[in-house]
Amino acid sequence: MIRARIIGCGACLPSNIVTNDDLAKTVDTSDEWIRERTGITQRHIALPGEKTSDLALGAARAALADAGIDAGELDMVIVATTTPDESFPATATVVQARLGMTRGAAFDVQAVCSGFIYGLSVADSLIRTGAARTILLIGAETMSRLLDWTDRTTCVLFGDGAGAVVLQAHAGHGDNADQGVLNTRLFSDGRLHDMLYADGGVSSTQSAGKLRMQGKEVFKHAVTNIAAAIVASAEASHIAVSDVDWFVPHQANQRILDGTARKLGIDPAKVVSTVAQHGNTSAASVPLALVTAVKDGRIKRGDLVLMEAMGGGFTWGAALVRW
Ligand code: ACO
User: Fold this and answer.
1) I need a labelling partner for 47 at 20 to 30 A (CA). Which of 1, 16, 99, 175 fits?
2) Is the model's pTM score more than 0.90?
3) Which residue's alpha carbon is nearest to atom 2 within ligand 1?
């Protein structure tokens, strides 16, 4: 059985760091409020002119170097993003060109904060069916461009960044001991649109709009949906949630991470959290957290890693990977 194995990963964050105290100078908020309600202490914000493709390219180069392969070996580039450089073409094609890739295919996936999990599911399917052998998957965002910086209920939550993985076909036995993606589970419910959306778009307002959110409602759905996705992914591979070595969640809010862990009886020490340093970087958040835990030595070859996310739509999902 063909498995999509992650052979390298890398990250890229804008150099510009904005602390809670920095934000308190421009909106009516405080370091104490943000820390208590979200766990966030700082976020990286792209400088003027710094685009999603710049961050995506940085993460892509780091992941390729980590995998020890050249861009010429890639069959596809997939970028999960809600903040593309332009309405078209796909940001993935910009990355493809800047990597010097002259073959293969490149396209974007749009599932907001769940984008990386959706992209992983697509990449895994393409590899397992033999349509591609090696795929670069990037989650990259400049959420700062989509924020209403006068709205303290949203602007304090988000940040910019990119994380990438290189997936490659690998012969497995078809059991849980195989290295690579063991399963992915995707969900959405479009009826929940009004809880989290951008109030603009090409065909409606001819502008990108700004992010709008009913925070309390999102919070309630997040814990329920994320817990359900974790259980669905564990059940799909016939394992207990307690068998998972590392949980790599979407980094929206420390209270959502804690609430989900409490609901499922997960040891908090197994939950990778980078929300304090990065804030919510949407599709970049899962790969940024993944790279953090791989580089600091927590996630090791052979570990069972469960990634999950939820975002606008709502979309949500989970992916179980043998590292
Ligand atoms: N600074 C100071 N006060 C604030 C701020 C702020 N930045 N934002 C809101 N407040 C005020 C409110 O106006 C309100 O004041 P009031 O009582 O006078 O009306 C008070 O703080 C409490 O506001 P609530 O909205 O009730 O605060 P809550 O405890 O729900 O926390 C939060 C808000 C942090 C947004 C929380 O609901 C949350 O995290 N929700 C999830 C949202 C999320 O993560 N979205 C990301 C995208 S989806 C995803 O990734 C899962």
Assistant:
1) 99
2) yes
3) 29
